[in-house]
Specification:
This protein folds into two domains: about 200 residues, no CATH class; about 60 residues. Helix content is about 50%, strand content about 10%. The longest helix has about 70 residues. A hairpin with a 2-residue loop joins strand 2 and strand 3. By secondary structure, it is α/β, with parallel strands linked by helices.
Amino acid sequence: MTKLKPTFKTDILFKLLFVKHPELLRRLIAHLLEIPFESISQFEIRNPEIPPDIIGKKFCRLDINMAVDGQNVNLEVQVENEGDYPERALFHWARIYSSSLLAGEEYTSLPRTIIISIIDFTLFSDCKEFHSEFQPLEVTRYKLLTDKLALHFFELPKLPNEIDKNDLLLMWLALFKAETEEEINRIDGLGVPELSEAVNAYHTVTTSPEYQEYERLMVKASHDEAQALYNAERRGAEKERKKWKSLEEESERINKENERVSKENEALKVELEMLRKT
């Protein structure tokens, strides 16, 4: 098996691929939200840039923020479970939702805001479904408070092993889950045009000079971080060594002082004994 490097879950590739191929992103969003592709009349990526100051950071997170038919839609891929993902997703929703209200506008003008998270870990262990959607409901009557909040979580570990070529959502998610060349080739080999287009886009982007430059910067940042950590550890070790040496020297000085005082006391005892005898 030939391991993929990078995968569809890799931050830089994820962002660059869908910014370069917005029609693929539009199709993906249609499947994730279960709406007809043809029904999307307005579609815009609001943050197409990749900030240079976050490239190579260990906890770099790149999302894609979109306007879809008057709604805020934010898509993010998360690989590691850091223990606070639901709260983080809700905070992210609140930030996008609140920033949509312009000065002088009424609250009713706030757009529906949807957060979509494709996650490579199990978040809800009490259910088998790979897709969970949350909205604010009254706890006993289950009455919807507002439709302006929606959080979608797609848990990749819960995907079925078999791929159904008629289920395009599962096929897209299988691409994100794929870790080997054989897996994406198997999806490509099913002959579904938009998935084959996604695989071709993957190969095009990963071999492009732009992505290779990003990869070079990521590798350089990783090396720089490792060297900085090594230097910090070395400085810390040297500082600790000097501290212990100083403590040893102080201890030796105190021991010598104690020996001197002890000898003086012994001498005084001898002198007092002689005085008593006289």
